[in-house]
Specification:
Blueprint: E1 2-5, E2 8-11, E3 16-19, E4 22-23, H1 28-39, E5 45-46, H2 47-55, H3 62-75, E6 86-89, E7 93-96, E8 101-103, H4 113-117, E9 123-128, E10 134-140, E11 145-148, H5 156-159, H6 166-172, E12 177-181, H7 198-211, E13 217-222, H8 224-235, E14 240-246, H9 253-256, H10 260-276, H11 283-292, H12 298-311, H13 314-325, E15 340-345, H14 353-362, E16 367-371, H15 383-397
Parallel strand pairs: 11-12, 11-13, 13-14, 14-15, 15-16
Antiparallel strand pairs: 1-2, 1-8, 2-3, 3-4, 5-7, 6-7, 9-10, 10-12
C-alpha cells in the first residue's frame, strides 16, 4: 500500500517515505514503526504490540522504542510537544492521528509491462549476526545458489526497480538462486550498529550463508564485496565452490595511498561525504556518481545519487567508507582454494585496473578478464555488461 498524509507518501512496497516526491532517509526500524502506526491509524497501538511487530522475539528496551518514535516524528516534521501526527497515549501506547489516504502500490518502473510480469518473486528475510545486528537478505530465482557479498550501498527492495542495480539482479538470477543482502548500517539492515569493521563484514557473509541453509555455494563479490568474498573463501574453503570478483581491489584507498597528497585526498573524501550527504543538491554526490558510472546518463547519475541518500545516513556512509578504505587482503588472497574469475573494466574511474590485476595475481590459478568499459558499475545494455554475464555464466557452469 501507499499511505498519504500531509505532504508525505509512505510506500510499503518500495520501503520509502517521500515528501513531495523526494525520498526521506529512514533507518529500517524507524520505517517499520512509522509504517505500522500509519497502517493502524484507526486505533491506539500498544507498546507491547509495537515491540512485538517490529523486533519480534528480540529483547529491546523501552528507550530504544522511544528513540525510534522520536526519529519517526522528526521524519514527518512532527513536534514532540504538539504531537500533531503521532500522539503518545500515556499508559497505553501510540496513535497516528493524521488524515490518511490509501491506494495500491505502483507497478515497478523500467521495462515493458511484459518484462515486469516475468520478474521472479524476491523473498526478503532477516538473519541475526552474532552481535545481534539484524541483516536483511533476499533470495530470488531458481538454480544453483550464487551468494553476492554486500557492497556499497544497496537496498533490497529499491534495487529491484533501480536503473542502476535492477539488471544485476535480473540477469544474475536468470539461471541461479541469487542470495544478496544489505550490509550492516545500510539498506534494510540495522543502521544503529557499533561494529562496522571488515571482520564484521566477513562474519556477516557467513551469517547470511547459514541463514539461507547453504553448506557450499558460489560467491560473487563486487567492488568492496570482492575483498569480503576473498577473506571468507580463504577462511572457509570447504564452503566456497567458485569465486567471481568484479571491480575488486586488494587494498583500499587509504592502504594504497603512497604520497602525502594521496593520503590527504583519501581523508578529504571521508570528510566531504558526511558534510554533504544529506543536502538536497550536492556536487560531490554527482561527482561520486560520475566516478562509478562515467558513461552513464544524467538520469542514471540522479538515480544513483538518490539511491545513496536513501540507503545510509551521513555518519554511516562515512563509517562504511572508512572501513572500505582500510581494506587489505594481500595476505589472505593466496589462501583461496576455489577456482576464481576476476573481471575489471579497463578504464574504471573508481578502482584502478591495476588493483584487479594485483588481486588476481595473488589468488592461485585465478583467471583475469578485462572488460571494455569505464564504468565501475556496469550499465544495462552496454557491451561490457553482456560480456560480463556471458563470462560469469560460462565460468559458473564449468
Amino acid at each position: 500500500m501507499i499511505y498519504g498524509f500531509d505532504d508525505f507518501e509512505l510506500d510499503t512496497a518500495a520501503f520509502e517515505l517521500r515528501r513531495r516526491g523526494e525520498r526521506v532517509p529512514l533507518e529500517p526500524q524507524v520505517f517499520d514503526v512509522l509504517a505500522y502506526l500509519v497502517a493502524h491509524h484507526d486505533r491506539v497501538v500498544t507498546k507491547a504490540e509495537l515491540l512485538d511487530e517490529v523486533w519480534g522475539d528480540r529483547f529491546v528496551s523501552e528507550s530504544a522504542l522511544t528513540s525510534r518514535i522520536k526519529a519517526a516524528r522528526r521524519a514527518v516534521d512532527d513536534d514532540g510537544t504538539t504531537q500533531r501526527l503521532l500522539r503518545t497515549v500515556h499508559g497505553r501506547g501510540f496513535r497516528f492521528t493524521g488524515a490518511v489516504t490509501e491506494r495500491s502500490a505502483r507497478a515497478p518502473s523500467g521495462g515493458s509491462s511484459g518484462e515486469r510480469g516475468r520478474l521472479p518473486l524476491q523473498q526478503v528475510r532477516y538473519a541475526r549476526a552474532a552481535d545481534g545486528v539484524r541483516l536483511a537478505y533476499a533470495r530470488v530465482g531458481t538454480g544453483p545458489p550464487l551468494v553476492k557479498a554486500a557492497n556499497w550501498l544497496t537496498h533490497l527492495r529499491v534495487d529491484w526497480e533501480s536503473i542502476v542495480w535492477g539488471h544485476w539482479l535480473r540477469d544474475l538470477s536468470a539461471h541461479h538462486e541469487l542470495v544478496h543482502y544489505d550490509q550492516r548500517a545500510s539498506g534494510l539492515s540495522d543502521w544503529q550498529v557499533e561494529d562496522v569493521s571488515f571482520e564484521a563484514w566477513v562474519r556477516d557473509l557467513g551469517t547470511v550463508i547459514d541463514a539461507a541453509g547453504l553448506e557450499r555455494c558460489a560467491l560473487l563479490g563486487v567492488s568492496q564485496g570482492a575483498a569480503v568474498a576473498v577473506a571468507f573463501a580463504a577462511a572457509h574453503p570447504e564452503r566456497v565452490s567458485r569465486l567471481v570478483l568484479f571491480g575488486p581491489y586488494a587494498m583500499g584507498r587509504s592502504r594504497r595511498a603512497r604520497t602525502e597528497q594521496e593520503r590527504r585526498e583519501a581523508a578529504m573524501m571521508l570528510e566531504v561525504v558526511e558534510t554533504t550527504w544529506a543536502a538536497d543538491t550536492s556536487m560531490f554526490r554527482q561527482m561520486f556518481a560520475a566516478q562509478f558510472m562515467p558513461e552513464g546518463t544524467p538520469e542514471q547519475w540522479d538515480a544513483f545519487d538518490a539511491h545513496q541518500r536513501l540507503t545510509a545516513s551521513p555518519a554511516n556512509a562515512r563509517r562504511l567508507l572508512t572501513t572500505a578504505a582500510g581494506i587489505d587482503v594481500r595476505d589472505v588472497a593466496p589462501q583461496v582454494q576455489a577456482p576464481t574469475l576476476v573481471l575489471h573494466a579497463r578504464d574504471d574511474r573508481r578502482i584502478p585496473l591495476q588493483q584487479g590485476e594485483l588481486l588476481a595475481s595473488l589468488i592461485p590459478g585465478a583467471r583475469f578478464v578485462t572488460l571494455e568499459s569505464a564504468n565501475h558499475l556496469l550499465l544495462d545494455g552496454e557491451p561490457a555488461w553482456t560480456t560480463f554475464v556471458e563470462e560469469v555464466e560460462a565460468f559458473l557452469a564449468e
